[in-house]
Design a protein that fits this description.
2 domains; 8 helices; two-stranded antiparallel sheet; 6-stranded antiparallel sheet; Beta-Lactamase; 17% strand; alpha+beta; Arc Repressor Mutant, subunit A
Length: 283
């Protein structure tokens, strides 16, 4: 019976040292502000120049790095463009998001969702239920007016500031769904500006009376906002005293998912310190 390996070894398997070294050099070239010379690459990685040259030569032949003819410095090669595109296209957003949402729901105790923008609405594409019997029980495929949701505000704000304005324009007044729903286009514009600057959105009694939701943006490898992560539940379990800690957890989850999708770094407004401990309500 063949042995099955389910874990990646913590140290290189014998015979793979050259591969590990080559990948380390490739990452160094990719992380450099400019072009990298052979001497610096060899020194930084504790390699003899001959060894570094041999490894870089193999990467160059495969198109993963290229070299300036005059200066002899290295930069990333064209083969990585095609490889990166293939990797991006092969990503299953729901599959990647699922463990992130599960972890977020476990930490917050509330239902976590991943939502995308569809015209004037947001649609739930993935979810993880919280531990309470009474609370938010959304279903995948459920749609809500974007202007009345935390995820919608995040996505509308991103669409506007990233150059593809997604704010609803079809009506003079926006539909009221709950006591605090924004119905004025001017007020929505002001709120979207604040959401963009803050890097997250918090809504209270806008989609439903006494329902609170907190959302943050998810970005892809190009830096574009493609979805929003949120948690939501009744205001009795999500009082304002918990909002700061919950915002931190939601932003961390959104940043984690963004990194899994290839985003190089979180947005500056999303750089939150480690989430503080938050008390879990009982009942």
């Amino acid at each position: 019976m063949k042995q099955r390996f389910t874990e990646v070894p913590s140290r290189p398997v014998p015979g793979t040292q050259a591969v590990v070294r080559a990948l380390s050099l490739l990452r160094a070239v990719g992380c450099a502000d400019g072009e990298c010379g052979l001497s610096k690459l060899a020194t930084d990685h504790g390699l003899h120049k001959t060894t570094a040259l041999r490894l870089l030569g193999a990467l160059e032949r495969e198109g993963f790095v290229s070299r300036d003819g005059a200066a002899g410095a290295y930069r990333l090669g064209p083969a990585l463009i095609a490889l990166g595109t293939q990797a991006r296209d092969s990503i299953d957003l729901r599959a990647v998001a699922s463990p992130v949402l599960q972890a977020l729901a476990a930490k917050c105790g509330e239902t976590a969702t991943l939502e995308t923008l569809a015209g004037d609405e947001v649609v739930i594409v993935e979810e993880a239920h919280g531990r309470f019997l009474v609370g938010a029980k959304p279903e995948i495929g459920t749609r809500w007016p974007a202007h009345a949701t935390a995820t919608g505000k995040v996505l509308l704000a991103a669409a506007r500031h990233e150059g593809h304005d997604g704010a609803p324009r079809s009506r003079t007044r926006l539909a009221r769904l709950a006591p605090r729903t924004i119905t004025s286009r001017a007020e929505l514009d002001r709120v979207l500006t604040k959401v963009w600057r803050a890097g997250h959105a918090v809504t209270e009694s806008e989609i439903e009376d006494d329902f609170v939701a907190i959302a943050a943006p998810v970005r892809d490898s190009r830096g574009n906002t493609i979805a929003s992560v949120s948690v939501g539940g009744p205001s009795a379990r999500l009082p304002r005293a918990r909002h700061s800690a919950l915002v931190a957890l939601v932003c961390q989850a959104a940043n984690d998912l963004s990194r899994r999708l290839g985003a190089s770094a979180p947005s500056p407004v999303q750089l939150w310190a480690a989430a503080p401990k938050i008390s879990q309500p009982t009942g």
